[in-house]
Q: What sequence folds into this?
């Protein structure tokens, strides 16, 4: 994987480079159509609920029902995407989404769509999208060269925001002229187009996992990686402190359109289109802006702009002024999320990419889902103005914290895969399922080198825990002054073999090399497995 923040992908001219690859271009266009259909469906669902009692909560629950499945299922979906053929998984899920969209169309057309059923089918549609997101994110590196991953991530944001600009506007016009049912029907057609594009795609080098990880083990491995990666945790934190207050703008905008601005469905579509246009402009200009401002300057500026936009929407009743405020809000939205998403794509190693991106999607969607419900309840109790001003205050606080929790500088971090551990020479061949496995590494370190050794081993600890260790410790025998013993516990022999076979990166290798430079000679390594857990290699040879 390329080093984040460095290389050709930083040049503005590369912003559209992935679209020169025919396969990526076809799938990107088909996904754009599907995204437009999704936004049309969201507007249609919200408009069906706008005249019910407790409309503030019901309208906000549409967004919650759409995004809550991502919160619940994204990580299991990431495990599936890392373990099975991603194209087949995507095809099966898109067929399910087409079926749900058809059901929405028919039930709405026959006037059999109470709020509870609408929210249930919206949730079912969200389930399909939750299964799609990690698989699609993990497929992108298979479609474009590695140096274009940052550009592909930005294009993904552009696709979503073009859909935000086009989808609501189309939905508003259709709802005003023909009702909500045709909007749901067009969404079914849109996902059928994406399904067809996936069916036509034939990967040149089919991805194969020789021995897929067991589901629960893979789930734990992904969670363990995120838990022990300060960089990933920092990126997730920055996403959350932005998304939770920002979700108020999306969740309550239908009520602003109808109650404060006196607009119909077409006017609501126009407001969403302004946000989408701003986001598209922001995505296009992002590569140029990155060359003039640091990532943290961008983060601070985007948060400040969004704070002002929330305050304007809360207090202004003049439609043109609200539209002018929504344009830079869209730019701020894509600036923050495209930056965080690109850093996640470039930082995560290949073996855990889908699971790591799934956790990011959990935070992103969960922040939106919880935020939408929170701001809906605040609006019901205290009114729209109070909800928007409270969100603006929270956004301002989050923006200030960018000075405390800045985005990490990844330009000097080596994320290239590095299988550098020596080949194992064992007297026993443990079953892959055997565990736990205790690995013991003995170092000989002179007293004057103890301090740099301990500092290096702190980095080694993080690498061990990210790649499989459940527990880790560093000890020194009381009988000597120059011996250290590192011990760490791995869940199974299979998990340890995966550490040997591709989970480590150049950053991990550098940490180990620093520790070994402080030691005299190569460390002595032993692997302790449960008694009677294996069979001798000589017995195997005699049997054959």
A:
């Amino acid at each position: 994987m390329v080093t984040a923040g460095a290389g050709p992908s930083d040049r503005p001219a590369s912003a559209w480079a992935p679209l020169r690859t025919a396969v990526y271009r076809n799938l990107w266009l088909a996904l754009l159509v599907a995204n437009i259909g999704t936004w049309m469906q969201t507007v249609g669902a919200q408009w069906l609920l706008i005249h019910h009692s407790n409309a503030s909560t019901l309208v906000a629950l549409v967004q919650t029902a759409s995004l809550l499945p991502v919160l619940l299922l994204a990580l299991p979906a990431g495990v599936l995407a890392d373990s099975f053929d991603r194209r087949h998984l995507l095809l099966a899920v898109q067929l399910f989404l087409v079926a749900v969209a058809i059901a929405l169309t028919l039930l709405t057309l026959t006037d059999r769509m109470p709020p509870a059923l609408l929210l249930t089918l919206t949730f079912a549609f969200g389930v399909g999208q939750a299964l799609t997101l990690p698989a699609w994110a993990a497929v992108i590196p298979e479609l474009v060269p590695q140096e274009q991953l940052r550009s592909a991530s930005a294009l993904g944001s552009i696709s979503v925001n073009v859909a935000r600009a086009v989808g609501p506007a189309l939905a508003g016009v259709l709802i005003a002229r023909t009702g909500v049912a045709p909007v749901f029907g067009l969404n079914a057609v849109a996902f059928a187009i994406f399904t067809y594009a996936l069916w036509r795609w034939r990967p040149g080098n089919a991805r194969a996992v020789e021995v897929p990880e067991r589901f629960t083990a893979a789930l734990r491995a992904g969670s363990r990686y995120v838990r022990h990666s300060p960089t990933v945790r920092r990126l997730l934190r920055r996403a959350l402190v932005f998304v939770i207050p920002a979700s108020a703008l999306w969740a309550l905008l239908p009520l602003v359109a109808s109650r404060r601005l006196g607009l119909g469905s077409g006017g609501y579509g126009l407001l969403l289109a302004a946000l989408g246009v701003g986001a598209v402009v922001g995505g296009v200009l992002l590569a140029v802006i990155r060359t003039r401002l640091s990532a943290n300057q961008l983060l601070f500026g985007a948060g400040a702009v969004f704070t002002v936009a929330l305050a304007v929407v809360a207090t202004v009743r003049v439609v043109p002024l609200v539209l002018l405020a929504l344009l830079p809000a869209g730019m701020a939205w894509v600036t923050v999320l495209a930056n965080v998403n690109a850093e996640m794509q470039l930082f995560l190693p290949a073996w855990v990419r889908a699971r790591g991106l799934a956790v990011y999607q959990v935070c992103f969607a969960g922040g939106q889902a919880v935020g939408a419900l929170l701001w809906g309840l605040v609006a019901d109790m205290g009114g729209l103005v109070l909800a928007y001003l409270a969100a603006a205050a929270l956004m301002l606080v989050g923006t200030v914290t960018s000075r405390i929790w800045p985005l990490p500088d990844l330009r000097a971090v080596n994320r290239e895969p590095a299988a550098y551990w020596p080949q194992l020479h064992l007297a026993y061949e443990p079953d892959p399922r055997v565990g736990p496995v205790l690995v013991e590494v003995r170092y000989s370190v002179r007293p004057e080198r103890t301090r740099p050794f301990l500092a290096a081993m702190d980095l080694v600890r993080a690498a061990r825990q990210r790649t499989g260790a459940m527990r880790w410790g560093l000890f020194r025998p009381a009988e000597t002054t120059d011996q250290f013993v590192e011990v760490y516990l791995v869940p199974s022999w299979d998990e340890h073999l995966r550490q040997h076979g591709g989970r480590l990166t150049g950053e991990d290798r550098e940490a180990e090399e620093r520790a070994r430079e402080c030691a005299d000679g190569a460390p002595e390594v032993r692997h302790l497995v449960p008694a009677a857990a294996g069979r001798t290699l000589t017995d195997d040879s005699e049997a054959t």
User: Anything to note?
Assistant: The first helix runs from residue 22 to 49. DSSP finds 17 helices and six strands in the chain.
